[in-house]
């Protein structure tokens, strides 16, 4: 293995083990996210260990080069992550709205703003 | 309209930076005899709340500016807690005519419909900018495609709800996409609705403060993504 492979593959495998073990024993509500991360860490480690692997997968999918496959995967991942954070923002905003609404109604019921 | 309806119907007004216009709107509204008016000051930076407090109305204050949809839902939730039988949403900026509340409320009060939606295109408009008309017409087409609800005016803030309908139509879209969301909820809960002709008066003041036509893009974006996020 090259120096780069030594520097990157062990940490990626460690992350894969951590997320993989949590898939089995962790809280069920985060299982899907952890499984996804497990696959990403493992896939990255495999691609770095065997640089021909992305090209082989790309050829199986009808894409010319492995580099193109990685680029497409990044573009899709970027969209998915953007939507994930947007959704988190919307959910947080909804929770904030509930708090602001509760305060507004409570204060009105206490007599502030009474006609 | 029967006097008891003027007590059992609650008028909900969302107000943001409406200090110059709200006083006149409330004076004209209260002159019609509706006793229960709730103004939700949506985190205004001016003295909107102070203006409202000079009138015999309930004033609720959002600590932050959340948007018209959030303010309307706060007012509706408050009215429901105070045992409202009917709820009317009404704009703060004086574009709506308070003498038309009776007409908007009538189909709901009679039991003919669960929701009555004001329509400026069945009624009348005064000084409506052409760009605004174009955007609103686009909104009609969009609503037919997205929600499969056939209405002539999708973003009219003049509406009446029965208590049962108001409990079902829970607005989660904080900003202007709430109007599309209400129509979506009507379809989802199979509520009976009618459109009622109303008059909308635009002035240079309200047009300047109102939504820009480009905001329609954001409304579509918020509505479609908000629908995907439950």
List the main descriptive attributes of the protein structure presented here:
heterodimer; A: 115 residues; mainly alpha; 4 helices; B: 230 residues; alpha/beta; 7-stranded mixed sheet
Please explain how this structure is put together.
The complex is a heterodimer of chains A (115) and B (230). Chain A has 115 residues and is mainly α. Chain A has four helices and no strands. In chain A, helix 3 packs across helix 4. The longest helix of chain A is centred in the last third of the chain and has 44 residues, at 66-109. The mean pLDDT of chain A is 91. Chain B has 230 residues and is α/β, with parallel strands linked by helices. Chain B starts with a helix and ends with a helix. Classes of the chains: A mainly alpha (115), B alpha/beta (230).
**Spatial arrangement of strands, main beta sheet of chain B:** 3-2-1-4-6-5-7
Low-pLDDT stretches of chain A: none
> What is the largest interface, and how many residues per chain?
A-B, 21 and 27 residues
Mean residue pLDDT of chain B: 92
Report the radius of gyration of chain B as a whole number of Å.
16 Å
Count of helical segments of chain A? 4
Average pLDDT over all residues of chain A: 91
Secondary structure tally, helices of chain B: 10
Number of strands of chain A: 0
Percent strand of chain A: under 5%
Say how many strands of chain B there are. 7
Structure class of chain A: mainly alpha
Order of helices and strands of chain A: HHHH
**Assembly type:** heterodimer
Portion of residues within helices of chain A: over 70%
Q: What is the H-and-E element order of chain B?
A: HEHEHEHEHEHEHHEHH
Low-confidence stretches of chain B: none
CA gyration radius of chain A, whole angstroms: 23 Å
Q: Structural class of the secondary structure composition of chain B?
A: alpha/beta
